[in-house]
Amino acid sequence: MRFSVPLVLFLGLSVFLLLGLDQDPQKIPSPFIGKPVPAFSLETVESASGTVSTQDYAGKPYVINVWGSWCPACYDEHPYLLEYAAQGQLPIIGLNWKDTREKAQSWLAQLGDPYVANAFDPVGDAGINLGVYGAPESFLIGADGIVLYKHVGPLTPDVWQEQFLARVQL
Amino acid sequence: MIPELGQVALILCLMLALAQMVFGFAGAATNRANWMAVVKPAAIGQMVFATLSFATLVIAFLQDDFTVSYVANNSNTALPTLYKVAAVWGAHEGSLLLWVLVQSGWTCAVALGSGRLPQVFSSRVIATLGFVSVGFLLFILLTSNPFWRMMPGAFEGQDLNPLLQDFGLAVHPPVLYLGYIGFSVAFAFAIATMLGGDLNTQWARWTRPWTTLAWLFLTIGIALGSWWAYYELGWGGWWFWDAVENASFMPWLIGTALIHSLAVTDKRGLFKSWTLLLSILAFSLSLLGTFLVRSGVLVSVHSFASDPERGLYILIFLGVVVCSALLLYALRAHRFDEQGHFDLVSRETALLVNNVLLVSAAFVVLFGTLYPLINEGLGLPKVSVGEPWFNAYFVPLALLLMASLGIGMHTLWRVSNTNSLVRRLRWLAVVAVIAALVLPSLFFGRTAVMTVLGTAAALWVILSTASELWIRYRTNGNVRMPRAMVGMLVAHVGVALCVAGVTYTSAYSDQRDVALKAGESYTLGNYSFELQTVKQVEGPNYVAQEATVGLAYKGKSLGVLKPQKRLYRVQKSPMTESDIHARLSRDVYVALGADLGNGSYSLRLQIKPMVRFIWLGALIMALGGFLALTDRRYYLERRAVEAGSKARTA
């Protein structure tokens, strides 16, 4: 009898492996969670002379949203971001990633601008330091500058409510 | 035309693998010698066609044949030739083809090396390996064909993922695969043993060199992966407890346990059913690792190809292989129940402790890796099981393992005299502990509990090894011993060095992210870094910003480091190319970060004491494995078996 134990254990395990196939592998915990956000100081999307720095927003919780005009999922996400910005609970900093200035500006002009500031990262250096897998991707940063949560993919209302707002006392 | 030949060769491989499987199993079951005679030529043929198939893909890469969609997706005319070859296994389809090639290589080696084994037994071994080959060949042909054409072809290729354009990663997968797949040999021996139900433990001796060889490759493969992650990912970390790393580490832990339990089964005829189970587990975990990496159920820094449909196929294949093996085990293992006994203080007990600890460690890693998946399967919130969790459970087990290792080396089979053991080892323990209390503060000016424990563990094992040599010298006047014994001692010293490296790198690494302008310096510890210039340089398929950083130790110049920030032209992805000033005692590691504007650049500076010991230790472990492998005993025994079987036939 005891020699059947490994078989039973394996059968149990395979149920979870099978369930795992249907799950969203994008909800990966970032290695940066619980660590200070990698600081960046970049030009703004609006102009080469403006700067956005993570330091400017220290002291209050905020969100960094990684986007690009080339990214179809960012289109889907955009109306939600406008909604959240209108509610005004958490400021959203944009990180315009691997994009060109003209395209990014015309996107904001046409679709509206939900961001309190928009950092311009054409090469993707800041994105690499943040461990960005793809756009859209959003990071929740606590008042103490610690990364509290990371979401890969569009920031839907459930995620916004349950994962973002719920994590910071407002 | 050439890629089509590769495809045909792959189909022929499948046919031969099927023949190998069917005639091997059926022939052994019905005892038909002419059926069983098929397996060996089939295995050789499979190797020939797998090589052909692989070669055609290499040729397609070298010729920049962008009508082959796999080539178009993973190569580029500007890619250096070495990386064109490495690109063959740079993504999913090609790495499976590499798997098939390596699998056929092992099978062929077993077929050629098994001439002296009983025919029924060797047929079953090769048939089992054929079964595994069939699974992988079907996987390639049905879901992941690397020879797929696209018409019209691409004008230029998409280029290889820049992370993979590196020597470490070019050689890492083949070596790792040699290890993973090597465990299929031990697996096949276990299956053949259980099918035959033969109670003698000859199979354990036959399995040992194959298992050690596979373990040796896996050890080197893991070390290469860790080294690559260290200098290429730009973070300076050498182990991340990442799903893909864990996938290779679990079979390693079980494989290490297997090597030790095989020794008991071989020498003493004990632990038979346990050894059989470990043989199944080592290979099952290799397959599970492949599933985790290839299916995309877990995402990691290293996974480059994932697709749920392929995941389903591997899961089915994994299920068939593992379930049938474990079912066979459930039905047959009781026949291999133990007779014979050993005392509480004996080498058997020491190796039992070793096995319990290694298997527990493997389960800790397995659990930590799969926990997010299990939680989600139960509908619980997704959790991250990170480094602190793994360290909290793994490190104590590792320390216990080190403690028992030092004792275990001095025990004897069957029964050991407790008093003489204590007399032999007590002063070593005292010396190790005192030295561990003193040394860290002496060299680094501060200490911590983990540092003391790690130092004590490493010293304990090294001193225990040295005393074994000393006692031998005192009693025999020389230190001559069998090669297997030398290998054992060397491998254990490797473990100690690795533990020392991990301890000191973790405790005394220094890291600073700084912003410097050209001409400015920064001092970290005894080292000063001066950013001299930053300039543009051109590579074959990238442009880079290259910083020149002058490095000095206590004011004495050590030369310059040239870290780069590369932008690969085709994939548009930036890559950090760190530069390292390496010495055995420490690495000085500089990575170039972002251009912060107004002439200043961010630099990541790190000093990592003894980090080289981690990989050096792993290489020494592998060397130990190699020495054990060359022990004459395995080959003498063969001759004796041969002589025996001749005597019987005569």
In brief:
The complex is a heterodimer of chains A (170) and B (650). Chain A is α/β, with parallel strands linked by helices and 170 residues long. Chain A is 35% helix and 20% strand.
List key phrases describing it:
heterodimer; A: 170 residues; alpha/beta; Glutaredoxin; 35% helix; B: 650 residues; alpha+beta; four-stranded antiparallel beta sheet; 10 strands; disordered C terminus
Mean pLDDT reading of chain B: 88
Helix content of chain A: 25-40%
Low-confidence stretches of chain B: 300-306, 644-650
C-alpha Rg of chain B (nearest Å): 27 Å
What is the distance, rounded to the nearest whole angstrom, between the alpha carbons of the first and last residues of chain B?
Answer: 54 Å
Number of helices of chain B: 19
Q: What general form of chain A does the structure show?
A: elongated
Cα gyration radius of chain A (Å): 19 Å
List the domain count of chain A as a whole number: 1
Model regions low in confidence, pLDDT < 50 over at least 5 residues of chain A? none
**CATH architectural designation of chain A:** 3-Layer(aba) Sandwich
Quick one: overall form of chain B? Answer: flat
> Can you list the strand order of the major beta sheet of chain A?
5-4-3-6-7
* Strand residues, percent of chain A: 15-25%
Query: Biggest sheet of chain B: strands, sense, closure?
Result: 6 strands, antiparallel
How is the quaternary structure best described?
A: heterodimer
Query: What order do the helices and strands of chain A follow?
Result: HEEEHEHEHEEH
Rounded mean pLDDT score of chain A = 82
Q: What percent of the residues of chain B sit in helical stretches (DSSP H or I)?
A: 55-70%
